Amino acid sequence: MKKQKKQFLGMLLVLAVLAAAYGGIHVYNQKQEKKEASEEEAEKLTVVDFKTDDVTAFSYVLGGQVYAYTKTDGEWTWDGDISLTLDTSQIDAMLDAVTGLTAESEITDGEDLVQYGLENPSGIITFTTADGTMTLQLGDKNAVTGQYYLKVAESDKIYLVSRDLSGTFSKTPQELLNEEETEETESVDATEGVDATEGVETAVGVDVTESAASEDSTEE
Which of 156, 166, 178, 213 lies closest to 78 in space, CA to CA? Predict the structure, then answer.
């Protein structure tokens, strides 16, 4: 009986040791994962270090036209028509894609801009903050890594980034209107400039004036 009791206590001791070892390994693995994640983040290069709220104005080129926006008292307006009410949440979402932007790698021998699609950038985005102005030039997509070439105009640095900023900054001011403004615009477009007589002539193919004259001569 004593022997069995000793064996039982021995087994409990072994289980306790194994449980402690497992717990220690689990904690160690968690620490290692956090350490590796921190090191990986540290290896990334900071391209944009300002925050969304820091941006007071920005512009981008779309279809050969420059669209510029300015923030006043927390509200965004399009410089082309400041009377329009823009959807601030949409604009903030666009800026969120840029603020805090990091790069996977930096190209140090990027003197030949042609091979990166940066001699004639596919997109140009400019941001203004209290600290000054920053312009990003967008280049080609790397066929191997799936990343995008990007150059900061104010420096010679060329980066490889994961985000497709040309797709983010691809909306016209009309697409950035808030819902109420859009409904009002569509309502005005549907009612303005409509000629009822022209509508009848176009639909039927008959000159209303000539038809009326014909009826008068028949009655006579």
Answer: 178
Pairing of β 132-141 and β 148-152: antiparallel
Burial of 110 (0-12, 13-18, 19+ CB in 10 A): middle
Sequence-ordered list of residues with C-beta below 8 angstroms from that of 207, at least 6 positions apart, any chain: 201
- Burial class of residue 136 in the structure, from the number of CB atoms within 10 Å of its CB (0-12 exposed, 13-18 middle, 19+ buried): buried
C-alpha 32/C-alpha 35 separation (Å) is: 5
What tens digit of pLDDT does each residue of 73-93 get? 999 999 999 999 999 999 999
Overall pTM > 0.90: no
Check residue 191 and give its pLDDT. 40
Determine which helix (DSSP H) or strand (DSSP E) holds 77, and give its type and residue range.
strand 75-78
| pLDDT (tens digit per residue) in 145-159 | 999 999 999 888 899
Residue 80 CA to residue 165 CA, distance in Å, equals: 23
